[in-house]
Write the structure tokens for this entry.
Amino acid sequence: MLTLKLNPDLLECGTDEAGRGCLAGPVTAAAVILPDDFNNSVLNDSKQLTEIKRNQLKPIIEDSSLTYGVTHIFMEEIDEINILNASILAMQRSIEQLKPQPEHIIVDGNRFKPYHNTPYTCVIKGDGKYLNIAAASVLAKTYRDEFMEKIHEEFPMYNWKKNKGYPTVEHRDAIRKYGITKYHRKSFRLLPEQLTLDLK
């Protein structure tokens, strides 16, 4: 059973990201503040939920939350500042969208950077412990999946509709066959045998 939040007395947001390990597409983060009376027996870490369950939960979270924000950080910025910094920036930009602003932030994982003067706590596997992080994980995943399904129409040969940009065998075989697109992260090792990538 997940707990609503870490600090019951504070206005607290949970934040999480999706797509950090992908070869293509953005890294997407969300931040959510849930009301104190929020309860949902299905909500859990998005990785533990089926796609159908995540899509069912998305409007419930959006309608129930006091406030939420979602941010994509795209490939060019990921390549420029690296994926860890991009993930943290996506979470911070999502928190910026919250009205009201939180008094405390709980972050899924073990890395974050100060956001203004707001205290924060990193929680490893937090999306399986706190409902507000789980809610953020579902929004980050569903918004990112929607984006990947949209760009799948442009480049169907990579089957992003199914693999969402993750380094599956099928995705890597398509990179070998067709090369890379504007949606691929050029700073990533896109193929296991890749030593350098000719980007001319």
Observations:
- The chain is about 35% helix and 15% strand.
- The first helix runs from residue 51 to 64.
- The longest strand covers residues 12-18.
